[in-house]
Inverse folding.
């Protein structure tokens, strides 16, 4: 008996839900608008976050830490340092670069001016040997540096990592992540509250009906479902509209930027397809969830009795 | 089958009890009137049956099942065994007669085929076939109460509970309603009717339970209206 009730439910429920949205059109519109507003603000932060993290990832992938060895290091020292570095779980990979290799690399990078280095050979090579280290997480750069520095005077001369701006970028990326999270939480609470109030009106308008449903033996889930559906639908409609607005705006801004030299050289905005692909799923799930949660709160009180 | 064992209900601590140590047994297929002054505890009795409220003391059995042990989830299934009719009808204004009755079947998940088959039968039983597509505001009080009765019996309840079903109706219409209830009772449904209608009680010669200030004072097998006004 319980199972058969699920089968026929959707039709009645969908019918009643659509009627209800229509009946409460003003509050429904207000709910949808609030979801749209919340999602547009969220969308802006998300796009910022996605861009910054793409940018950071890009830079991070090129990020190395170099541990330079003293010119008179011994093989034993080299082995100890390499062992210690390889044992650390912060480190992705350790590659040794001998001073000859460093010189060859430098010379190759000079291209047609490589003759400038022609006076140097393996006897008077000024390039130090080094370990090239890739870390797993750029936040660990400093810790790895500290680790390598413990071998100072045990073969290690000094440690050098990326330019200043890398650290700044990493910090900024962390900051935008945190900020987005805060904005997400705050806006979610506001949206849930507005949907909660809309659905409460619906519930109140239909309290007679709810009473009758109970006397005829409707289960709580049956009574709840049209309200949850209504809230979810409001959230989804808001999500779709907000997505379209964001999409149009993003492509517009992209068009403006591509004609200017505003962006730092060598960087690009995250590909719009990538951003929009991520965003639409997030918006739909978020809008639906916010709507459902708001309605569940709204109906809870009326279900007792 | 309904059984009350020493049931007491008090709403507030400092007020006197709405029901006082009430014990009674109503067998399957009985037709019972419940009478008493305003405030005697009649609606309280019905709310207890529907598990809208719980007794302060004592236990209530419906079909041999102690309904105090019901979990919240099980209450709807208890109510599916009982039809309810109220003085104020409680129809949905934006649904037609057919839809109002069909609603009770939709809620418990009956198929559309079953609904299309059974709703006209129930409306025929209460003599309302010709009003099937009308809306509640287009109907007289007596007609509305017929719709409510059709809705209450559509799922074949074992018990039909009526709280002043004729309270808003003229005497002639009241008789029509009561005879519909009698017909339903003849088909095997247990019926409990709360009423203030002295004439109907006296004419029907059914069992009468009388409540006075929350206590069951009279239980007459072939009863007459039990208390003087
Ligand atoms: N929810 C409640 N909270 C507090 N007291 C209540 C509540 N419901 C009923 N009572 C009290 O319980 C007593 C019995 O009420 P009940 O509604 O059962 O009477 P009744 O016999 O149905 O009266 P009527 O014929 O007027 O409908 C009354 O004194 C009433 O004031
Ligand atoms: Mg009453």
């Amino acid at each position: 008996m319980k199972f058969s009730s699920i089968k026929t439910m959707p039709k009645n429920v969908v019918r009643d839900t659509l009627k209800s949205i229509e009946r409460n059109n003003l509050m429904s519109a207000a709910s949808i608008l609030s979801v749209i507003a919340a999602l547009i603000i969220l969308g802006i932060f998300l796009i910022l976050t996605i861009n910054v993290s793409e940018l950071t990832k890009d830079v991070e992938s090129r990020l190395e830490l170099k541990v330079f060895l003293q010119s008179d290091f011994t093989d034993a020292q080299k082995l100890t340092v390499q062992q210690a570095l390889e044992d650390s779980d912060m480190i992705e990979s350790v590659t040794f670069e001998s001073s000859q290799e460093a010189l060859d690399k430098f010379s190759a990078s000079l291209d047609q001016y490589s003759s400038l280095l022609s006076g140097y050979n393996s006897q008077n090579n000024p390039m130090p040997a080094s370990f090239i280290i890739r870390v797993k997480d750029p936040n660990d750069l400093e810790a790895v540096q500290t680790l390598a520095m413990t071998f100072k005077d045990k073969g290690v001369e000094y440690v050098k990592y990326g330019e200043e701006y890398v650290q700044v970028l990493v910090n900024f990326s962390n900051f935008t992540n945190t900020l987005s999270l805060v904005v997400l939480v705050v806006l979610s609470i506001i949206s849930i509250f507005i949907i909660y109030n809309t659905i409460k009106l619906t519930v109140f308008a239909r309290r007679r009906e709810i009473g009758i449903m109970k006397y005829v033996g409707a289960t709580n889930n049956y009574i709840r479902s049209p309200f949850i559906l209504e809230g979810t639908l409001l959230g989804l409609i808001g999500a779709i509209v907000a997505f379209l607005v964001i999409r149009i705006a993003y492509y517009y801004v992209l068009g403006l930027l591509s004609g200017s030299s505003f962006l730092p050289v060598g960087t690009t905005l995250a590909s719009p397809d990538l951003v929009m692909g991520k965003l639409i799923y997030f918006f739909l799930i978020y809008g639906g969830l916010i709507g459902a949660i708001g309605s569940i709160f709204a109906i809870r009180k009326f279900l007792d009795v | 089958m309904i059984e009350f064992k020493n049931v007491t209900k008090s709403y507030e601590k400092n007020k006197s009890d709405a029901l006082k140590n009430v014990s009674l047994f109503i067998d399957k297929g009985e037709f019972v009137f419940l009478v008493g002054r305003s405030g005697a505890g009649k609606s309280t009795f019905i709310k207890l049956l529907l598990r809208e409220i719980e007794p302060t003391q004592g236990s209530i059995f419906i079909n041999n099942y102690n309904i105090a042990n019901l979990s919240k989830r099980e209450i709807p299934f208890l109510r599916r065994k009982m039809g309810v009719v109220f003085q104020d009808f409680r129809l949905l204004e934006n649904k037609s007669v057919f839809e109002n009755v069909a609603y009770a079947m939709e809620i418990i998940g009956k198929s559309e085929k079953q609904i299309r088959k059974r709703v006209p039968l129930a409306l025929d039983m209460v003599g309302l076939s010709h009003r099937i597509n009308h809306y509640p505001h287009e109907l007289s009080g007596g007609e509305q109460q017929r719709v409510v009765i059709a809705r209450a019996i559509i799922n074949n309840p074992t018990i039909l509970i009526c709280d002043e079903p004729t309270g808003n109706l003229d005497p002639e219409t009241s008789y029509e309603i009561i005879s519909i209830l009698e017909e339903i009772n003849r088909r095997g449904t247990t019926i409990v009717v709360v009423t203030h209608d002295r004439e109907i009680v006296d004419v029907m010669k059914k069992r009468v339970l009388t409540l006075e200030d929350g206590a069951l004072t009279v239980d007459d097998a072939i009863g007459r209206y039990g208390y003087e006004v």
In short: Strands of chain B lie at 2-9, 19-26, 31-36, 57-62, 65-66, 82-86, 159-163, 190-194, 207-212, 215-220. The pocket of adenosine-5'-triphosphate (ligand 1) is lined by residues B 11-12, 18, 36, 38-44 (CB under 6 Å). The first strand of chain B starts at residue 2 and ends at 9. The helical segments of chain B are 42-49, 75-79, 97-107, 112-125, 141-153, 171-186, 198-204.
